[in-house]
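Two proteins, back to back. First:
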Amino acid sequence: MRAFVTSRRVWLLAASIALLAVFGADFATGSEVSVSLLYLVPVAAAGWFVGRRAAMVLSAGATASWVAAYLLVRHFLFDPRLLFWNATVEAGVYLTVALTLSALRLEMDKQRATSLELREAYEQLDQELQAVGKIQRRMLPAAPPRPAGWRFAVHYSPSRRAGGDYYDFFPLDQGRIGFLIADASGHGTPAAVMMAMMRALVHTDPAALDAPERALCSANARFAPIILAGQFVTACYVVFERARVDYALAGHVPPLVARAKTGEVEEFVNRSGPPLGLFDKASFAREGARLEPGDTVLLYTDGLTEAMDGSRRFLGVDRVKQVLAEHCLEPEDQLCERLLEELRFHVGRGGLSDDLTLIVARAVPYAGS
C-alpha cells in the first residue's frame, strides 16, 4: 500500500513538472507554434496514474497555463471574447480527457481486483477439491485382493479432482470375495459425497454382503431416504467364488466375460433393478455364470463405453469387446492397460469427460488342482 501511494506521488510530481515544461514551451514559442495539445500529456498522466482529483487539478492548471501564456505573449489577435471561448474549449478538452482516463483506469482496477478475488476463490476451491479427492482415494482399497482362484487388476481415474465412481471388495466366508462397483449421478464433489455415503452404508450391514441381491437391497433401503431428489447411484455387486460368479445389477452396465478357450466375449445377463436411491423399496435379481480357468471378467463404469472422441462418438461396448477378445490371454494388468490405451486413442486430446473405473478379474486354477 505504501509503495502504491509513493508511486502516485511520483507520477503527480512528474505530471506537474511536465505541465510547467509545456507552459514554458508555450510561452517561448508564442503564437508561432501551438503547443496547447501538449497540455494533454500531464493531464492524461494524472488521470491514468494518479486519480480523478489530481487529473481535474491538472486540467485546471493546464487551462490556466494556456491562458497565462496567451496573455504574456500579447497575442496579436487578442480579443477578450475569443480568449474566453478558446479557454472554455481548452478546459473542456482537458477535463474530458482527465475524467475519461481516470474513469477507465478506475474500471480497470475494479476488474483487476475482481479477477484477483475470483482467482483466489478458485484456488481456495481447488485446494478444497484436492482435499476431497485425497480423502476419497483413501476410502478406496489400497490394492486388489488375491484370493485363491482369482487375480484382479483395478484402475480408477476421476474426470475431476474428486469423482463419483466407487469400488470396494469384501472378504467373505469359504474363500469367496465380494466386489462392488458403483457410479453416482453427476460429477465432482456432490458425486464424491454420495460415494462416501454409499461406502459408509455398505459397511454397516456386512451380513447382507453374502448375497448380491441382498447387498443392493440393503444399500438402497438405507440410501434412498437420505439423498436429494434426482440423485441416484448405479451399482453392480459380484461375488467371486471358485469357477463361478454371482451378481446383481442396479441400473449398472452388466459385466463382460472373455472365454479363454474360444476367445468369445459375452455380456452377462442383464436383469437389472433400478438405480439405488430412486425408490425407497426396490428388488434386485441374482444372476450367475460359470467360469473356466483363464476366463476374464470385466467390471466397468460407463466412463469407458461412453467416452467420446472429437466427433462426439462413443467408444462403445462393441469396441471394448473387440479389445477383450484380442488380448484376453494377456495378464490381467496388461489387459487393463490395453483398454486404457484404446480409450486414450479414442478420446485424443479431449480427455475424460466422466469418471472411469475398471476391474479385470481373471479366473486361475487353484493351487494343486
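And the second protein:
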Amino acid sequence: MDNLSRGRVGISFASGWQVNDFVLAPENHAHRKELMIENIGVVQKLLARARTVEFRDPKGKTTPVKILPRPVQESLPIWITASGNPDTFKLAGEVGREMC
C-alpha cells in the first residue's frame, strides 16, 4: 500500500479483545497487549528500508525474512487502536512516547 499511495500510508495495530479473534492462537489471548507491542517492533523492522529480520522455524533454524517491494517511506506512521478500555488509551500514549 505504501508503494501504491507513493508513501502516504500509515498502519494501525490492535490487540484484539473478542475471543474469536484468537481461534488460530488461543494461547495469545492472555498476553495480547504485550504481544502486540512486541510485534509492532518486528513489523517496524521489516518495514524499515533494507532490513532483514531473522525468524526461527520449529526446528530452531533461523531464516532471514524481508518485505518486497520495499516501502517508499523510511518508516510508516503507526497508531494503536483503542475503543473503550482506558488502559489501552494509556498504552497507546506510552508506546507513542517510546517511539518518538
